[in-house]
Amino acid sequence: MSIRNLIDITDLTVEEIDQLIATAEDIIENPAKYQDACAHKQLATLFFEPSTRTRLSFESAMLALGGSVLGFSEAQSSSTAKGETVGDTIHTVSCYADIIAMRHPKEGAPYAAAQFSEVPIINAGDGGHNHPTQTLTDLLTIHREKGRLDNFTIGFCGDLKFGRTVHSLVNALSRQSGIKFVFISPDELKMPDYIKENVLDKNGLPYEETTSLEEAMPALDILYMTRVQKERFFNEADYVRLKDTYVLDPEKLVPAKSDLCILHPLPRVNEITVSVDRDPRACYWKQVKNGKFIRMALIMKLLGIRV
Ligand code: NCD
What we know:
Layout: H1 14-29, E1 42-47, H2 53-64, E2 68-72, H3 86-93, E3 99-104, H4 109-114, E4 121-126, H5 132-146, E5 152-157, H6 164-173, E6 179-184, H7 193-200, E7 207-210, H8 213-216, E8 222-225, H9 236-242, E9 261-263, H10 284-302
Parallel strand pairs: 1-2, 1-3, 3-4, 5-6, 5-8, 6-7, 8-9
Helix pairs in contact: 1-5, 1-10, 2-10, 5-6, 5-10
């Protein structure tokens, strides 16, 4: 059997994503059924960049499947600090683990890593490029909140240039019908041309671009807020100037739909005030929980395990 990796969200077909969502929903209903699914299997989490939710949800997912985990949470504690290449690190870890989730600051690093691995590689975020498992988390949350993955208007707000979660989610939603995309960002942080051209224009999908969250708000069914990605800026002054462009607070939500679904991959900095957490439309803490269940479904799929 050939190795299945998840480097880009389009490595999974729309049908496979539907199956993962169905499995995750079954896990939520019947967790005991899955508690030994990955007994004696090992997941390695190799994080060359900071993380809270992604790494811990992967580890929590594997433990809930009866498997075990190993890995590192910063490059400095691995032989990367001695000058080892990603290829050699992955070659090594694939001798010890059955599956690897890796995050790396360089775009394309997980793809390169997969060439050196004897076990499945999962991209847990590569630079400002992609983040397919956050997209699975987002899709599960949308499915649970809206009961469907098609026919809605979604606004992406904030750092659309460096925000890898938005790139992967736009890619996934471009395969659904009836999605209207609204991109809300400062001019400096607009959706990259390669996404607009290769994903949207190529498939004849319409989108709007605006700098005004207020103007976009009334039409939205889903609002996907993002953090300005400080670590990807070349100079501090630009970051400071742009970081608080959008701050979602209860007042800005007054003209929004009553069944708006507010998502954010987290961590948030200033872009959603804590007072919004009490609004029933805030779904980002549900997203955090869902991240574990969809990763359980994904680990089983890539290991070829069915229960
Ligand atoms: C995101 C990421 O790492 O890209 N976080 C996450 O994985 N939940 C978003 C971010 O860091 O802003």
